[in-house]
Design goal:
The chain has a six-stranded parallel beta sheet with strand order 2-1-3-4-5-11, with helices on both faces. The chain has a four-stranded parallel beta sheet with strand order 7-6-8-9, with helices on both faces. A two-stranded antiparallel sheet has the order 10-12. The chain has about 350 residues and is of the alpha/beta class. The protein is built from 13 helices and twelve strands. Helix 3 (about 90-100) packs parallel to helix 4, helix 6 packs parallel to helix 7 (about 195-210) and helix 8 packs across helix 9 (about 255-265). The protein starts with a helix and ends with a helix. The structure holds beta-D-galactopyranose (GAL) and calcium ion (CA). The ABC transporter complex is composed of one ATP-binding protein (MglA), two transmembrane proteins (MglC) and a solute-binding protein (MglB). GO terms for molecular function: carbohydrate binding; metal ion binding. It comes from Candidatus Allofournierella pullicola.
Length: about 350
């Protein structure tokens, strides 16, 4: 009898012990899994189009820096990059879906910079901070919500630096005035109509020269939508119209268009005028080194990516974003432009 009770008891004890062990194992396995599973940050990145040299470098930088942060912080950063294919309706649908899938922050390279209000309202409703970049929404829209930010460079500064490059060349090299009339004859290749960088770079590049007392004459100007192929076609057309020999300077709102103009002059066998761009893309820097592109203005794509990521991380940690980035008026992060000519390429890396 005693033995029966004993064996019964021990059986019960064994079962209880096994159960407890199982429970403990399950618990610790659970805890272990939670420890091993890093926190996931979901970031939606909406590009106006993927088919843009400068924008694709920003996306690449963002991807690279996110991987570095994952290593450094022991978290996972899921970037969902979507291509708006230059269509605002498409981009809004993509953003709806990113919000629907529960993203923690949005980085938006908006297609139509006048259409930010609806997007900011959607983000606010879902409480997802929205960081615009490169394509600047109108100022009133940015005031709709405290968690709407813009990261980019000041468009007029890009124009001023480009104008100064030409001014310096004009003042130091008399052969630039090909026809010797004391007037600077130029053509202008513009980015997308309505883009802050197209409008302000165009205006301030020329204004920098006229403010310095240089007489200028615009021979032709047209939009080539930031694209090398379109710029080549426009320049080709100007050359066909016989402008070739009279162009002293080609201003292009970006490097791809500057390279397109160079393509056209080279193909036509025309002597290259002084050509300037903006962005400092890799092919543009090669053209500077080859002496075909006189200069460019560095558009800090890596800086844009860095500031966006710093903002995303700060917001995710519920830190004050002003501690993570230099925030102007509570909404803006400004990256500086920098002029680049062959002289800068010769300087040894700091
Ligand atoms: C500009 C850049 C262009 C193009 C455009 C797209 O800042 O210079 O090359 O990328 O942004 O919004
Ligand atoms: Ca002249």
């Amino acid at each position: 009898m005693n033995r029966t009770i004993k064996s019964c008891c021990s059986r019960w004890l064994r079962r209880a012990a096994a159960l407890a062990c199982g429970l403990l194992a399950a618990l610790t396995a659970g805890c272990g899994a939670a420890e091993a599973e890093p926190r996931v940050l979901r970031v939606g990145v909406a590009l106006y189009t993927q088919d843009d040299t400068f924008i694709s470098t920003i996306a690449q930088e963002l991807e690279r820096m996110a991987r570095e942060e994952e290593q450094a912080r022991g978290l996972r950063i899921n970037l969902s990059v979507v291509d708006g294919r230059s269509n605002q309706t498409t981009q809004l649908e993509q953003i709806d879906s990113l919000i629907g899938r529960g993203c923690d922050a949005l980085c938006v390279n908006i297609v139509d910079r006048t259409a930010a209000a609806v997007l900011i309202d959607k983000a606010q409703k879902a409480e997802v901070p929205v960081i615009f970049f490169n394509r600047q929404p109108v100022a009133e829209d940015m005031l709709r919500w405290e968690h709407a930010y813009y990261v980019g460079a000041k468009a007029e500064e890009g124009g001023i630096l480009q104008g100064r490059l030409v001014l310096e060349a004009w003042q130091t090299d008399p052969t630039l005035d090909r026809n010797g009339d004391g007037v600077l004859q130029y053509v202008m290749l513009e980015g997308e109509p309505g883009h802050q960088d197209a409008m302000l770079r165009t205006e301030y590049a020329v204004k920098t020269l006229t403010d310095a007392g240089v007489a200028v004459e615009k021979l032709a100007s047209d939009t080539a939508n930031w694209k090398r192929g379109q710029a080549m076609a426009k320049a080709q057309q100007w050359l066909d119209e016989g402008l070739g020999g009279s162009v002293e300077v080609v201003f292009a709102n970006n490097d791809d268009m500057a390279l397109g103009a160079i393509d056209a002059f080279k193909q036509a066998g025309e002597e290259l005028p002084l050509v300037v761009g903006v962005d400092a893309t890799a092919p543009a820097l090669e053209a500077v080194a080859a002496g075909e592109l006189y200069g460019t203005v560095r558009n800090d794509g890596a800086g844009i990516a860095r500031s966006m990521l710093d903002l995303v991380l700060a917001l995710a940690e519920e830190q004050d974003p002003a501690e993570a980035v230099e925030l102007e008026d509570g909404h803006y992060v400004w990256l500086p432009y920098r002029a680049v000519t062959a002289r800068d390429l010769e300087e040894p890396a700091a």
